[in-house]
Amino acid sequence: MTTRIVVTGTDTGIGKTVFSAGLAGLLDGFYWKPVQSGLDEETDSEAVERLAGLPSGRVLPEAHRLKSPLSPHRSAEIDGVSIEAADLAFPVLPTPLVIEGAGGLMVPINRQTRFIDIFAEWRLPVILCARTELGTINHTLLSIEALRARSIPLIGIAFIGEEVADTQRTITEFGAVRQLGRLPHLVPLTRETLRKAMFAGFDLAKIAGGD
Ligand SMILES: Nc1ncnc2c1ncn2[C@@H]1O[C@H](COP(=O)(O)OP(=O)(O)OP(=O)(O)O)[C@@H](O)[C@H]1O
Ligand SMILES: C[C@H](N)[C@H](N)CCCCCC(=O)O
Ligand SMILES: [Mg+2]
């Protein structure tokens, strides 16, 4: 059973947090967003508190909370702080832990280090979230290539959005990667609709089985 899973994505704003909330709920685990940039609106951790249906204490505090909703490296500079890789040592816990990056793989945490460099150090299995809309084939295959070039274990793709069967098939075939499932855009998005959609859309054995 994989106890620590990194959730990353092909871009910012594609649904990593909602998927992470659903996954953490399904695994009855913990959630950690090491670096949160943007504090004026609901943070990722607050969204997971609202959506995951976990007991209190399961959403761990961020290592960095940065004011501006920008790339972490820039948001940190504006706040006059520096994010170091050592700040992002993941906690060792007895139960599953879902760790969410920020934006996509190449997003920098400072002027020398990107999230993908952290993931390569961690060597934890990764789930890559991807849209299903036009444009996702390129973004997803590029992300897969970047993970493979660094031997970062990739459990598979979590598609987010309406079904586009040929796009999903094209990505899994060219990427030689498992499709873990698909999370549609939920209206309304609630703890209940998310839990139902995760049970319907994903095979936990494929996910928890690891890379
Ligand atoms: N499956 C979904 N159903 C309904 N709304 C969704 C879904 N996935 C994402 N959203 C909405 O889309 C917006 C962006 O989603 P989310 O915050 O999960 O993106 P993200 O990839 O985590 O972004 P970031 O890179 O900032 O962490 C949010 O308002 C979220 O509520
Ligand atoms: C602010 C946003 N919600 C994320 N937390 C950070 C996204 C960084 C994206 C950087 C980029 O790819 O240009
Ligand atoms: Mg997020």
TrEMBL record:
Residues at which substrate binds: S37
Subcellular location as annotated: Cytoplasm
Keywords on record: ATP-binding, Biotin biosynthesis, Cytoplasm, Ligase, Magnesium, Metal-binding, Nucleotide-binding
Residues that coordinate or bind ATP: G13, I14, G15, K16, T17, V18, D44, E100, G101, A102, G103, P184, H185, L186
Names of the cofactor(s): Mg(2+)
Short name of one Pfam family: AAA_26
Alphabetized InterPro entries for the sequence: DTB_synth_BioD, P-loop_NTPase
First-level EC class: ligase
Catalytic activity: (7R,8S)-8-amino-7-(carboxyamino)nonanoate + ATP = (4R,5S)-dethiobiotin + ADP + phosphate + H(+); (7R,8S)-7,8-diammoniononanoate + CO2 + ATP = (4R,5S)-dethiobiotin + ADP + phosphate + 3 H(+)
Binding residues for Mg(2+): T17, D44, E100
Recorded superkingdom: Bacteria
GO molecular function, a single term: dethiobiotin synthase activity
Family: Belongs to the dethiobiotin synthetase family.
Subunit architecture: Homodimer.
Role played: Catalyzes a mechanistically unusual reaction, the ATP-dependent insertion of CO2 between the N7 and N8 nitrogen atoms of 7,8-diaminopelargonic acid (DAPA, also called 7,8-diammoniononanoate) to form a ureido ring.
Protein name: ATP-dependent dethiobiotin synthetase BioD
Organism encoding this protein: Mesorhizobium escarrei
